Every structure is written in structure tokens, then in C-alpha cells.
What does this fold into?
Amino acid sequence: MGKIAVIGAGKWGQALHFALSQKQECFITSRTKKDIRNFVDLEFALNCEYLVIAIPTQEIKNWLKENFIFKEQKILVASKGIEATTGEFLNEIYSSFVPNENIGFISGPSFAAEVIKGLPCALVINSTSKKIYEEFSKFFPTFIKPYYSSDVIGAEIAGAYKNVLAIASGICEGLNLGKNAQASLIARGLVEMQRFGKNFGAKKSSFLGLSGAGDLFLTANSTMSRNFRVGLGLATNKKLNTILDELGEVAEGVKTADAIFKLSKEYKIYTPIANEVKLILDGKNPQDSLKDLLKN
It folds into this structure.
């Protein structure tokens, strides 16, 4: 196996670095020096044969423009989301920099805090090239079981959409609406996610497996989820800036809600839950959103 490096030393990047380091030497880099074993500079990382890129979605396009030069590297994208300003999916952003046969996208239920403890989980490597799956799967430790899917767009939409639904679920929890309501919200959210994905050619099976239902059930049911905690804050009428400051981390669902709202209007897709999340993020009273969801 060739050299592998993780780019992005947030919690998920660190967790992946820990996991990949179990089998062989794995390097990691970010914009700021961190006290992490095998931390290297960007130039060194970019010259590794295998790259795992864990940079927040809203920063990726500029980062690629400013830093990335394709040298036949194999790329595994560990980000989730949709670019808010353009509505572009990650595979569309990367397509200008990396050929399809050299890139894969990771998805599935995977809290960084559990991965970094070595607790078991299953993930999906999504790529049009099964060779990418075969090569990257060799790096994963025994406590992570990787699966393969060719449905890149399905995995991307599921990974992005579930963060918005996690905010909705957090709001539901914060309003003390009960488990009946929360289960109904998550179930209808899964239907909504699948409807949105169908418009872009995603496979139904992707939303019923690890990438869709698996990741959604995890993220929408735990305070370990940053997006769920955003919803909890919104339910108590906290200002969004205050919530994000207290969080101290990126909650991708906030910007993704904007992107889904725009795309659903453009393509005339019925996305009532995601729309209400967007409106609440913009200042709408959560109780008013609840009434609108119940009557529509």
C-alpha cells in the first residue's frame, strides 16, 4: 500500500487518521499545527498517493483552487453537504479537479467520538470505480467494515440531507413534542430525502441502507450530533450565531438547508421539513413551523 494522508484535522479528520493509522503509517495535515502524531505540512500530504479529504463542504472549492494539483492521487472525500451559494454537489465540485476513476465518497453512520475509541461501525465507499473501493478498503482497521456502492449522488444527498433533518429532530426534542412526533418526523424526513434524491437520479436503495437510514437514525437521535444540538438551541429561541459560537464546530446542516431550499424551488421538489428548517434558521418561530407542518 502507498502512503496515505488525511487533509483536515477537525474531529472527523482526526478520527479517520486514528482509524487508518491502525494498519500502517498515516499522515495528517491542516492549516494550523496540531499536537497529532504524524502531522505533516500540506506539500508532503499532497504528494501522498492516497488522500482522505475532510475539509468542510463550504470551504472545499476555494481550497481546491488555491492548493490542489492533481498528480494521479486517489481521493476519498470525507465531507458531507451541498455548497450553499451554487447548489453544487461535492462530486460536481471535485469533477473539475479529479477524474471520476480516482475519487470516492465516504458515507454512513459514524460519530467521530466513537471511531476514535475504536468502536465498531460500517461505512460505504461510493465511487463509479470499484477499484477505488478496493484500494481504500485495505487501509481500514478491523473495527470498520467498508461496503461498496456506485451511487455517488445518492450517498451525497443522503449525507447532506440527514444533517438538515437532524436539526429538525433537535427542534422536535427541544420543544418536548414527544417520541411519537420525533419518530414521525424522521420517517417522513426519510421519504422527503428519497424524493429529493430521485430528482437527481439517486437509487432508492441508497436511502434505505447505511448512507441514508443508517446515518439519519444516528444523527437525528443523539446530542453527539452537532446538527441535532443546533436544533435544540433553536427550540429555545437562541440566536443562530450564539448556538454556533457555543458549538465551536461546523454544523453542515445550516448551510445545507439553504442549498436544499434553493434546489427544491428550482426543481419544484416537495421538501416541507427542510423548508421549515431553513425558515427557522432565518428566524421563524419553531411553534409556527410546527403548526404549518401539521396542517400542510
Notes: The chain is about 55% helix and 10% strand. The CA atoms of residues 154 and 245 lie 32 Å apart.
